[in-house]
Specification:
The chain has one domain. Helix content is 52%, strand content 9%. It is globular and about 30 Å long. It has 4 helices and 2 strands, in the order H-H-H-H-E-E. By secondary structure, it is mostly helical.
Length: 88
């Protein structure tokens, strides 16, 4: 999962793929306890191509073909992370 990620970004990616909630992943990975701050951090982190690639890689390793992105509720929603269309 390298992709030139920081330790914190790798922790975020693992937690995001594990839980499906980007805000919760940011609360775990980053030094914040405020959900609103975590939501902003999560959105910014998921906007990075290297993070998107790492998420896609972990989803592929897990046999998941649906890409995900952070919805306003903080949950994974069916969509594309990497810009590639999902295949089923």
């Amino acid at each position: 999962m390298g992709h030139g990620l920081t330790v914190t970004q790798r922790r975020f990616v693992r937690e995001y793929v594990r839980t499906g909630y980007c805000t919760a992943a940011a609360l775990v990975a980053y030094d914040t306890r405020d959900p609103r701050t975590a939501s902003v951090i999560a959105t910014e982190t998921l906007g990075r191509p290297s993070v998107q690639a790492a998420v896609a890689e972990l989803l592929d390793e897990g046999g998941l073909s649906v890409r995900a992105r952070c919805s306003p509720s903080g949950a994974m929603s069916p969509s594309r992370v990497t810009g590639r269309h999902a295949t089923t």
